[in-house]
């Protein structure tokens, strides 16, 4: 027989589908592609101009601390005004984040002054964060993904958090698995947690030699316990499966 | 053979694809569906809250004339302040429409006053128009589609114009074909023009009896000429094809 799709001959044992199903599947594919085109043009329409191109209409500014370590801002006030402000619109922040919504719709200091101070990020990260709120676009590297995920979690911008988590999950390897696992745990990133835990368990033989492992034992031994528990569960399941498969 | 998709038996002459192509097609379908899910969540993210929910942050208002006929506002000034204003954000209007962008980024009266007067629409249409600029959503009926298309053309909101045109094209029938054709011509709606012209040509026998035809001959005879020219071209082509097919 001749395949209607690749136009090559095949044997009966390599048969796939009947003609009707093939034609239906082709139609479905066309429909899905049309839907994708429609959605893409909707995304293009809904994307706002960058706030820097709309600066004359902005009604608040965000200030970042120049401290680059998100977890330990040494002196929050010292560098506040040394980095440029990031202009934005209340309406956009309110639409994108329930945290900004609560902050700006109530009589809070930020709402009155039109200044939102964000101590625990660098200027570059804050700028990318705000840019994402307008455009749903950002160029990620591993550092940026990590910092933006933290910010997205803090301000409950789910879409950005998922985007960063996907990126980080695609970058997990045996070298960074322990660090990724600890990070995922800290920031409730389930997909990243599962991917890194799975990779850790695939490399249990070398786990205890790793520097990050030793650090984790020091800092957060409960997390290490969870690794061992997961490993044990996996071993028990594998053993049970092997037993079932025995003749 | 058994079809892997519908699980029914089929004869050799009803064969569709080989197994490899079937599996590939299934994977492609899954991928396309994932892409659709991603795009849908991006659309949900980019959608702004309705301006009515953001009213405390709006920085301009649009006023509609209560005149319901878009083409003949009898006295533009008479009803300006009798309908409620539609609040909006400069940033959103600038992002969505090059016409609003030019209006608001230059020192025009509208930019200074924060009031945009739109005489040739009803309040309901203007509200739906602005709502669409924020959300890419609108509930259409034939009147609304028609009025919004006009507004979308005027303010160069391409995405909305295409959306309305698609809706109107889906509603063309032998009853409204002549009116749709004239409307499409006036507003550069190519898809609608082709659909209505095709339907007119399918019903040429009754064309001259129609009231809208007689009106069109009065108002815009050149459009009627174009109908006859298209009909003639179609007849010539059909005749040529018939000749080729003759043995």
UniProtKB/TrEMBL annotation, chains A, B:
It holds the Pfam family BTB. InterPro entries: BTB/POZ_dom, SKP1/BTB/POZ_sf. The keyword Coiled coil applies. GO terms for biological process: proteasome-mediated ubiquitin-dependent protein catabolic process; regulation of proteolysis. Residues 58-142 form the BTB domain. PANTHER family: SPECKLE-TYPE POZ PROTEIN (PTHR24413). Keywords: Coiled coil. One of its GO terms (molecular function) is ubiquitin protein ligase binding. This is (wild Malaysian banana) hypothetical protein. Pathway: Protein modification; protein ubiquitination. GO terms for cellular component: cytoplasm. The keyword Magnesium does not apply. It comes from the Eukaryota. Residues 18-49 form a coiled coil.
């Amino acid at each position: 027989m001749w395949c209607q799709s690749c136009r090559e001959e095949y044997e009966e044992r390599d048969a796939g589908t009947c003609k009707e199903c093939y034609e239906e599947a082709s139609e479905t594919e066309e429909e899905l592609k049309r839907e994708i085109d429609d959605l893409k043009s909707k995304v293009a329409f809904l994307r706002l101009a960058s706030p820097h191109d709309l600066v004359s209409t902005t009604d608040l500014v965000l200030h970042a601390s120049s401290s680059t370590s998100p977890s330990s801002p040494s002196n929050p006030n010292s560098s506040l005004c040394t980095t440029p402000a990031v202009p934005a619109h209340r309406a956009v922040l309110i639409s994108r984040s329930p945290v900004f919504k609560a902050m700006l719709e109530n009589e809070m200091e930020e709402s009155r002054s039109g200044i939102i101070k964000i101590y625990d990020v660098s200027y570059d990260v804050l700028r990318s964060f705000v840019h994402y709120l307008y455009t749903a676009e950002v160029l990620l590297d591993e550092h940026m993904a990590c910092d933006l995920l933290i910010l997205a979690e803090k301000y409950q911008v789910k879409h950005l958090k998922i985007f960063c988590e996907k990126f980080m999950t695609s970058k997990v390897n045996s070298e960074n698995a322990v660090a990724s696992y600890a990070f995922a745990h800290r920031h409730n990133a389930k997909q990243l947690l599962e991917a890194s835990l799975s990779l850790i368990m695939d490399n249990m033989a070398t786990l205890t030699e790793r520097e990050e492992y030793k650090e984790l034992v020091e800092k957060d031994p409960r997390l290490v316990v969870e690794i061992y528990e997961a490993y044990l569960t996996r071993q028990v399941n594998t053993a049970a499966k092997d037993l079932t498969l025995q003749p």
